[in-house]
Please model this.
Amino acid sequence: MSDATATSKPGPARDREEQIFETGAGFAIGEMYRPGDVDDLNYERDLGEPGAYPFTRGPYPGMYRERIWTRRFQVGFGSPRETNDRIKYLHSQGANGFVITIDLPTSYGFDSDDPISDGEVGVTGVPISTQEDMETLYDGFGPDAVSYALSIRPPVSSVTLAMLANVARKKNVPFEKVIGTQQNDAFYQMSGGPLQTVTQFFPLDGTVRLCIDNIEFISKNMPRLNWMVTNGYNLRETGVDAVQDGAFTLAHAFDIFRCARERGLDVNVFARRASFFLSCSIDFFEEIAKFRAMRRLYAKTMRDRFGATNPECWRMRFSVQSAGNTLTRQQPEVNIIRASIEAMAAVFGGAQSIHLCSYDEAHGLPTEESSRVALRTQQVIAYESGITKSIDPLGGSYYVENLTNRVEKAIGDKLAEIDRDGGMIARIKEGWLEKEINSARVKNQRDLDTGRRNLVGVNRFKIAPEEERPIEIHRLHADVWGERRGDYLRQYRASRDPQKWAEAMRRLESGWKNGENMVPLLMDALQNKVTMGECHEAMRNAQSWNFR
Amino acid sequence: MNARKRILLAKMGLDSHDTGIITVASILRDAGYEVIYIGLHNQASKVVKVAIEEDVDAIGISFLSGQHMTQMRRLLEEMRLEKLPVPVFCGGVIPNDDAAELKRMGVAEVITAGTLSSEVARLVDRSLERLQA
Model:
């Protein structure tokens, strides 16, 4: 990955530090860039206007002049009641978009009182085991008024989607008015890489089927609900570089689109509300180039390869979180600066929504204070810096356009390679992705050990541990939460009609075997008080599959 | 150096963040250890069972979702019941107070994020040598 004008040889700088002139993904960085480095740049073809093909300059015409990106709040802990109270407080402070984090048992489709959930209930997010739990989360709000993005994936997201549909019905909100984001990435959602997370508790093919069931249900019933195709964020967090990030993210999305098309769904309809969740790492220009390149590549692929004729389906929209894996435990306040650099790259890259990591994340879960600092960082960028006021202000920069071209080419080449080898899902199933991730991890550690990559406070500019400022930590009450949820679920199960429950369980099994779309069946089951865990048990039984 | 000492590495509970443990596995292999990594979602009984079967010299567990106190209490209790006296290392995102508490409970070392490879190997070597002495 080099070009004629660039050199990657280390050389002395004015402060006599050794420098390596390449990006994180290994693109050589030249001394400076001139018109000749972008001499084939064609404005209409390669950049275009913001909001127009190929969307390099941004997915919408007015960009931040018309609407500042969404500054999302992440909430979810303890119980649905506590989480709803917190949402009500934040809503009164002016927030209307929330990422709801889900606890680990729920993320795998287990009820709070399943023995496997012991010690994990409410720790990393909110538990959701019943229809009533979802109603509690929406207490005080209609699903047409606040936007929730539940951090979840299939198979579980089919159940939460059915819960959402039931909430809408109960509140007399027509399906076509429901807003929010349905996260729907089966493969990267659980910390990015490990295949075991996709195979241990539910059959992989069944998971993919539910992923497509969701897409079908949403595109036919809920035209305003976004659905997240790929969680590239979690993938990137494993340690892969910007090119792998772009390629594995898009290759996964295109595979899912192919599956949806095989189901008979219309690309001009289902791709309309598809969206992405991406990481923004510390390598400033490379990340900006990545976002711009991915948008252009997506537009080309959707138009030319998928044959989408609806321009809305060419437009790649994404939310961004700053990279947790660039944060340090040492001198944690320095992380605020890292997050600001990453947030600015996301803004120059044209993100629709941004969430910044808190500076204390290498110590524990964020506190209210550290979350507030993360939000204030965004507000300074949005309201003080002025960098939002002209659209794609780096567009046309010799360097940025040259790098965007090179990143696009590298991602495109990798995409072609993955396609040739059977597509991303096949490569994940074979364990190839996990191998790629693991070698990236080893390389990253080696780069830190050797000082090839600088990390302030870790391999450069260290201070003694006793000079570190003490950090306030968010305290957890897993045992109390677990016990309370156990009592709640015992009462919930005791209060239901056993015959209706058994009939609903049977319908789930037969519906699965008949190949029906499971979402309406799950809606019915949940109304008959079938729990989250029981829905999964019924669907596992239908596949004659057991992991216990 | 403890040539060809065997170390069992595992993730416990439902947490699936494995970047740290995969990296540590590679560091320890490079430092001459034989590493047995048994993947995600292990319960204390499984970790102890494998440790006994594989006759390992040490155990390493990594956490990044706040379950370290609960899970480590269970693991140490299970080791006492099964009379397995090998040193246990703990790594990941662990607050300083909890790290101190884990050491009081008998964890040999708590190795947190941002530790360079040479330091990881040195901490593990030192604990095993101390045990031999």
Q: What stands out?
A: Residues 199 and 205 of chain A are 9 Å apart (CA to CA). Residues 1-8 of chain A have pLDDT under 50 and may be disordered. The domain at 66-71+180-462 of chain A is CATH 3.20.20.240 (TIM Barrel). The longest strand of chain A covers residues 274-280.
